[in-house]
Design goal:
Blueprint lengths: L6 H8 L6 H4 L1 H6 L5 E3 L6 E3 H17 L4 E4 H5 L11 E8 L1 H5 L6 E8 L2 E9 L4 E6 L3 E4 L2 E2 L12 E4 L7 H16 L4 E3 L4 H9 L5 E5 L3 H13 L3 E3 L12 E5 L2 H10 L12
Parallel strand pairs: 3-4, 10-11, 10-12
Antiparallel strand pairs: 1-2, 4-5, 5-6, 6-7, 7-8, 8-9, 12-14, 13-14
Helix pairs in contact: 8-9
């Protein structure tokens, strides 16, 4: 059933930038309004009523068309739903990536939807809400932004690299020490810079577009990573575990880069920060 569908058609039907005009404005309109903000795992792990609204809308739209499919979604998981990736067709959804940005009206905010069958990621859609950029990738079919093909950087030298990361929700002294130490290690290796933009999915899209050379993070989730992984791979890049081994979507850790050489250099420089696994929470 899915094999006969085009990625852009699914993007139009499933994202807030798609064919339903009221959905187009939900996040952009809410950016300008007062919000009811709650916390989840920490004071830095935020959620708003808009996160829940967008997630419910996406799942509702997809369930109408694919009633037998499974869903893994951020706010459902926060409410206790299990994150188990089976062989069944599964949608993996982050309704608002960059919720802290969203709360503060900082415009780097995105919606991310990945799709997996037999535990293999098949395609991903990421919509940059404020800039109306639609990133898509489908296995074996390439990656695009608003119809323009994406291509990663071919940089292999860490001393010439721009590296992206995110802080993660843990802010205890030991975790912060490891986080800052990892940044320091990359800067000692003379990376051109390390950037934190507040949206892991959009940071990974910048990597796919060649605007950055590498990305790493401890503490991101499968819904942050599923769609972006397809987009990066289809743009010619690599996504691996921080150990240097194959990506484990549920491991809450990742290194991505335009080249394997760059990915391995980043992985070798990092100290591990333990966030557990999505499928064990």
């Amino acid at each position: 059933q899915i094999d006969s569908l085009e990625c852009d058609d699914l993007a139009a039907r499933s994202t807030p930038g798609g064919e339903s005009q009221p959905k187009t404005w939900i996040i952009r309109k809410a950016l300008t309004e007062e919000k009811r903000v709650s916390t989840k795992t920490s004071a830095a792990d935020l959620v708003t009523e808009t996160d829940h609204l967008v997630e419910d809308l996406i799942i509702s739209e997809l369930r109408k068309r694919f009633p037998s499919h499974r869903f893994i979604a951020e706010e459902a998981a926060a409410s206790g739903a299990k994150c188990v990736l089976t062989h069944s067709p599964t949608w993996i959804i982050d309704p608002i990536d960059g919720t802290c940005n969203f709360v503060h009206r900082f415009p780097t905010v995105a919606v991310s939807i990945g799709f997996a069958v037999h535990q293999e990621l098949e395609f991903g859609v990421i919509y940059h809400c404020t800039e109306e950029r639609l990133y898509t990738g489908r296995r074996g079919r390439g990656a695009f932004c608003n119809g323009q093909r994406l291509r990663v950087s071919g940089e292999t030298d860490l001393s010439k690299a721009l590296v992206l990361t995110e802080i993660g929700p843990k802010r205890d002294p030991a975790t912060l020490k490891l986080f800052l130490s990892n940044m320091e290690r990359l800067l000692h290796a003379k990376a051109h810079g390390v950037r934190v933009i507040g949206s892991s999915t959009l940071a990974l899209c910048h990597l796919a577009s060649g605007a950055a050379d590498a990305y790493y993070q401890f503490g991101l989730h499968c819904w942050d990573l599923a769609a972006a992984t397809v987009i990066i791979r289809e743009a010619g890049g690599i996504v691996i575990d921080t150990s240097g081994g194959p990506l484990d979507l549920m491991s809450c850790r990742v290194v991505a880069a335009g080249t394997r050489e760059m990915a391995m250099l980043i992985a070798q420089a990092l100290q591990t920060i333990n966030y557990g696994r999505d499928d064990e929470k």
